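Supplementary Text 2. Reproducibility record for the structural model of the 225-residue chain.

All settings were left at their defaults, and a single model was retained for analysis rather than an ensemble. We include the record here because the model underlies the residue-level annotations in Supplementary Table 4.
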Amino acid sequence: GFTIELNHAATGRRIEGRGVRASTDDDILSVDMVWMSDVTEGVAAVDTLTKENQRLIEKNDRLQSALDGLVSPVWLRDDDLSLIYCNAAYVRAVDARSSSDVTSRGREIAPRAAVREVRALAAAARASGITRSAPFHMVIDGSRRLMEVTENPVSLNRHEDDSNKSEYGEDTPSLFGDGSGLMTAGVAYDVTRQEELETRLSRETASHAEVLERLGTAIAVFGAD
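Retained model, structure tokens:
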């Protein structure tokens, strides 16, 4: 048997030829059968889908490279607040093997005592549709850091009117169980340096005040009035 694709010389359409040998049980009679089918539309559709798939792969690779190039941990949560993606910085922060290791085990970037608060932050952002942020102390690369965690609501339904409609006008199944198509994108910024500067400023201010208080000279500060 065989299957080949041919170009029709007169019309330029794509023809699929299939051949098979059929015979009786006693092999007395054998017949070669050939089918010719016009597969022009099917081949065109496959070519279009192949090009689109390649374009999406290239786009995904570029986005992945960009996110992995960031020094800040980045992650995505689904409608159940479960981790479904993280970048390379997140993997390093939690000392995991890979992104799939993080998502399969649900490894939160926050310490165990603060996991509930971080998930609550994501839940609040998703419910309100407003970005939420809060500081959390974490151990990153063996040192205690202050990280500003931000959760942003992200909707997959870019066009509310027709995003869930198929080509026949029927509703298509949503990616998420509740049908909202809403997830959250999180990022953690290292603000340890800011905390250190604020602490240093507070100490210097307190030191100056203590020096003034210990002086035997009476001191007063007057305003513009």
